Structures are given as structure tokens and as C-alpha cells.
From TrEMBL:
<dbReference type="GO" id="GO:0071885">
    <property type="term" value="F:N-terminal protein N-methyltransferase activity"/>
</dbReference>
<dbReference type="GO" id="GO:0032259">
    <property type="term" value="P:methylation"/>
</dbReference>
<dbReference type="InterPro" id="IPR008576">
    <property type="entry name" value="MeTrfase_NTM1"/>
</dbReference>
<dbReference type="InterPro" id="IPR029063">
    <property type="entry name" value="SAM-dependent_MTases_sf"/>
</dbReference>
<keyword id="KW-0949">S-adenosyl-L-methionine</keyword>
<protein>
    <recommendedName>
        <fullName>Alpha N-terminal protein methyltransferase 1</fullName>
        <ecNumber>2.1.1.244</ecNumber>
    </recommendedName>
</protein>
<keyword id="KW-0489">Methyltransferase</keyword>
<dbReference type="GO" id="GO:0005829">
    <property type="term" value="C:cytosol"/>
</dbReference>
<feature type="binding site">
    <location>
        <position position="146"/>
    </location>
    <ligand>
        <name>S-adenosyl-L-methionine</name>
    </ligand>
</feature>
<keyword id="KW-0808">Transferase</keyword>
<dbReference type="GO" id="GO:0002181">
    <property type="term" value="P:cytoplasmic translation"/>
</dbReference>
<feature type="binding site">
    <location>
        <position position="77"/>
    </location>
    <ligand>
        <name>S-adenosyl-L-methionine</name>
    </ligand>
</feature>
<comment type="similarity">
    <text>Belongs to the methyltransferase superfamily. NTM1 family.</text>
</comment>
<feature type="binding site">
    <location>
        <position position="82"/>
    </location>
    <ligand>
        <name>S-adenosyl-L-methionine</name>
    </ligand>
</feature>
<dbReference type="Pfam" id="PF05891">
    <property type="entry name" value="Methyltransf_PK"/>
</dbReference>
Length: 240
């Protein structure tokens, strides 16, 4: 006898509504304060930690050692390009951008990033949600995902990671930097305000395994206020 259908209503990611999330973010101003939920002072700490994390990855890499910029990266869920401008463009020749809110990418290419766009430092701008983005194979040394994956369901996230895995050049990395759920029963938590899910470390590890990715480095972000969710960063590569 077949098992009854699973009750997905109890799963936090079943509540994700892409249209509602897009409406929420579209209602926000294109500022660093807005991107960081009213904590703009965290940007400098965050960007420096990310730069340090990538530097450590490169020191242990045979294919992407230190000494010259990476060829191409993509900033996924880029918002107004805070990570692109403050970090990636300094260590990568060309940075593509994936962001569904067009007013955010307009701010990026017409504002502080105007000069970088003019000289080709900022490459393709994809105004689509991550669930719809299909990258070309063998394109990126680095696929950077930060504070955006909570808008995808578990199933969408697995498919997204599989596409990103195919988009990596040999020795490249998918980096995930996200809030971690602190639920006492180790459950994911749905946020009704921005229509996203905050996942547990265990959930992320399960999803990585499902789509054929292995963790090659991971650490917890330091220097953030204790009242905020902890933030963990993972570097992933194809498993085998």
C-alpha cells in the first residue's frame, strides 16, 4: 500500500510566495540600509570577512591560486550590488549580476557601479529570480550567494544548485552565506515579512548532498550582534 501524500503545509518552505517576496523587496528603497535590514554598519565587517574567506580558499587551490584576479564570478541575489562593489569587483575581472528587482540593478549600473559597467567590470545583468536563472555551463570561477536563498523552496534550491554546479569551471566554488535558524527543535523558520525561510545548518548540508556538492570550507561569521541570527558561509564544489 502506498504511503499517503506528505503534509507539506507543515514545512516552512511551502509558505514561500515569489510574487509576495518580489513585492516586498520592490517596496524597499535601493540603499545599503534597506539591503541589510536596518543594520548598514555590518557591511564593512561582512565584506572583509568574505574577502578573507575567499583568500583562504585560493591559498589552498591548485587551479585558482592567489596572484591574479579570478576571471568571472556571479553575484546572485545581488540587490544594489553591495557585494559586487565592495568585494567581488576588487578580486574578479568580470562580475555578472542576478537580481529580480530591476530598480536595484538600475541603481547599481547607473550609480556607484556606473564606471565599472562602462569598462566591462560588471558584465551581464540578469533581472530574474534565482529559481528561473539558467547559467551557461563552464562559465564561473565563483558563484556567490548571500542572503537570498531563503526565497527558494527546498526543491527549487536543489535544482538551482545543480545548475550552478554545471556553471562552474574546474576548481571553481559555489559560496553560500546565509543566516542560520536557531530554533530549539532545529527547524527552519518562515518569515512572513519578506516571505523567506531561514534554514538550519543541517538542512543546508542535506540539500548540498542531494545535489552532488561537497563542503570544502565553512565558518561562522564573527563580529555581528548576538541578537541577530548567526551567519555561516560555505564553500562548495562538485562531489566527485
Amino acid at each position: 500500500m502506498a504511503d499517503p501524500p506528505a503534509d507539506t503545509s507543515a514545512q516552512p518552505d511551502a509558505s514561500i510566495n515569489h510574487a509576495a517576496a518580489l513585492a516586498y523587496w520592490s517596496s524597499n528603497p535601493p540603499t545599503v540600509n534597506s539591503m541589510l535590514g536596518g543594520h548598514p554598519q555590518l557591511s564593512r565587517i561582512d565584506l572583509q570577512s568574505s574577502a578573507n574567506f575567499l583568500a583562504k580558499l585560493r591559498r589552498s587551490s591548485r587551479t585558482h591560486p592567489p596572484g591574479k584576479p579570478l576571471a568571472r564570478a556571479v553575484d546572485c541575489g545581488a540587490g544594489i550590488g553591495r557585494v559586487t562593489l565592495g568585494f567581488l569587483a576588487k578580486v574578479v575581472e568580470v562580475v555578472d549580476v542576478v537580481e529580480p528587482v530591476e530598480k536595484f540593478t538600475r541603481e547599481l549600473v547607473a550609480g556607484e557601479g556606473r564606471g565599472l559597467k562602462a569598462v566591462g567590470k560588471i558584465g551581464e545583468v540578469f533581472n530574474v529570480g534565482l529559481e528561473e536563472w539558467v547559467p551557461a555551463d563552464d562559465t564561473y570561477d565563483l558563484v556567490w550567494n548571500q542572503w537570498c536563498l531563503g526565497h527558494l523552496t527546498d526543491a527549487q534550491l536543489v535544482e538551482y544548485f545543480r545548475r550552478c554546479r554545471g556553471a562552474l569551471v574546474k576548481g571553481g566554488w559555489i559560496v553560500v552565506k546565509e543566516n542560520m535558524s536557531t530554533d530549539l527543535e532545529e527547524r527552519d523558520v518562515f518569515d512572513e515579512v519578506d516571505n523567506s525561510v531561514t534554514r538550519t545548518d543541517g538542512k543546508f548540508r542535506t540539500l548540498f548532498k542531494q545535489c552532488g556538492l561537497k563542503i570544502v570550507a565553512t565558518e561562522v561569521q564573527r563580529g555581528f550582534p548576538k541578537e541577530l541570527y548567526p551567519v555561516r558561509v560555505y564553500a562548495l564544489q562538485p562531489d566527485g
